[in-house]
Amino acid sequence: MTTHFITAEIDLQETPTELQKVIEAELKKQGEPLRWAITSVDVEQQACTIEAVVTTES
Q1: What is the pLDDT of residues 4-38, one digit of tens each?
Q2: Residue 41, by phi and psi: left (phi above 0), alpha (psi -120 to 50) or beta?
Q3: Which residues on neighbouring strands pair with residue 52, listed in sequence order?
Q4: Residue 10 and residue 51 in contact, taking contact as beta carbons nearer than 8 Å
Q5: Using one digit for the tens of pLDDT, what is the confidence trace for 39-54?
Q6: Is 45 exposed, middle or buried (0-12, 13-18, 19+ CB in 10 A)?
Q7: How far apart, in whole angstroms, are the C-alpha atoms of residue 17 and residue 27?
């Protein structure tokens, strides 16, 4: 098992529940998320930056 630190940019969604689902789906493409956080929000671009730690099978 290997851990990776990744960043992703996600478009803001209509509701926080939808945003969480979109974030988790995007992170699962990279591996199994251990933790993640929204680290910045760009209101003009309607996007947020996510930093996460994910694990993958070697």
Answers
A1: 999 999 999 999 999 999 999 999 999 999 999 99
A2: beta
A3: 6, 36
A4: no
A5: 999 999 999 999 999 9
A6: exposed
A7: 16
Q: What is the 3-state secondary structure (H, E, C) of 7-55?
A: EEEEECCCCHHHHHHHHHHHHHCCCEEEEEEEEEEECCCCEEEEEEEEE
CA distance 9 to 39: 10
46: left (phi over 0), alpha (psi -120 to 50) or beta: left
CA angle 52, 55, 58 (to 5 degrees): 145
